[in-house]
Amino acid sequence: MGKKYVLLALSLVVTTAVVAIVLQDAHRESSLESPTANVSNEEPLAGQQTGESAQLLQPQEDIEQLMQATATPGVSELAKYPGFSNSEEDEAQFSREEMAREELIAGCMRENGYEYTPAPSVVVDEAAMSNPEEFERLLQESLSDPNEVYVNSLSVDMRKAYYQTLTGMDNPNDPEGQAHDLAAFSDSCVNRAYREIPGVYAKRNQLSEALEAMELRIEEDERIVRATEDWSECMGDRGYTFSTPADVLRQADARLTDIDQSTVGAQALRLIGEELNESAKVAEDCQQKTGLDDIRRQVRVEYENQFVRNHRAELGGRKPEN
Fold first, then answer.
1. Closest Cα to residue 5, out of 139, 99, 128?
2. What span, in angstroms and rounded, lies between the C-alpha atoms of 238 and 232?
């Protein structure tokens, strides 16, 4: 039914930590997205209040301003909530939850008369990127699907029924967004598994629209704009034509998506890995030289702390203190 998805971790500080490109099976996309995302109008950053709002603070606002004043400088309050820090702890929890969901999906499919072999993510981290042999092995693993032989053995009608049971769609690779939207409300085995084990990133998915709006404001902040222009110039001096660090990730995404294991040889895979690793290293070097890392981190903390003040009720409880 297509390749498993890959988490490709590159050492590009586009958020507060290592960024992951997720190349997902189409059958997972509808389940990972919340059909009822919370959308809230964001308040201005601290220090930007005007008019009566700057003078007449309600009790809750008093509390929030006190928390802001006592927050650790340079530390994101948002990162203290599960699923929002891109930490190893969150990633480890995601892996455990994903494997548990895969087992639930397999059981559900068996109950409906179908075979399904659990197929968790393949993680290609920075260490693997710098090791051609390991990169090749993981990439080949990610391009394989333990369910492909079984699915291809089914008749056309049986295959549609299989995918309906699994994902709520006749064809999980259907590019039409409506099919994925409808599948999100289905009683498919994938959705059942996500309802039983929402996962560490559940709150993040529910707040995805508000988070995207925050990310847009971060990228439009004049401090980020200036530093990113300097970064792009640095990349140009090294022979690259990227405008933003995100462009490096998109290029890697496109290269990996276009790979056809049946036609790409081992040597070609090694060269692709070396090429992506080199561009990631140059991008990180330019971020260090231009100060983009530090500027982005400072700006992000400001916006993320404001995000917490705006969405504390939806965020729920924090992580336990170590």
1. 139
2. 10
d(CA 79, CA 73): 13
Strands 19-23 and 122-124: unpaired
Contacts of 196 (CB under 8 A, 6+ apart): 101, 104
Angle at alpha carbon of residue 50, lines to 45 and 54, rounded to 5°: 85
322 or 122: whose pLDDT is higher?
122
Question: Domain boundaries in the chain?
Answer: 1-317
Lowest pLDDT segment from 15-19, 134-138, 169-173, 308-312 = 15-19
pLDDT single digits (tens) 120-139: 877 666 666 667 777 777 77
- HEC profile for 46-98? CCCCCHHHHCCCCHHHHHHHHHHHHCCCCCCCHHHCCCCCCCHHHHHHHHHHH
Integer Cα distance of 235 and 232 in angstroms: 5
Q: State the average pLDDT for the chain.
A: 75
For the chain, the straight-line distance linking the first and the last C-alpha, in angstroms and rounded, comes to: 42
Rounded to whole angstroms, the Cα distance separating 41 from 54 reads 18
- The pLDDT value given to residue 206: 92
Closest C-alpha among 120, 103, 113 to residue 192 = 103
pLDDT range class, residue 51, cuts 50, 70, 90: very low
Chain mean position to CA 290: 26
| C-alpha span between 45 and 306 (Å, rounded) | 6
* Distance between CA atoms of residues 81 and 55, nearest Å: 31
Rounded alpha-carbon distances, angstroms, from residue 177 to 116, 171, 172: 25, 12, 11
The residue behind tokens 């099976």 is 25
Rounded CA separation 115/145 (Å)? 13
State how far the Cα of 273 lies from the Cα of 137, in Å rounded to an integer.
11
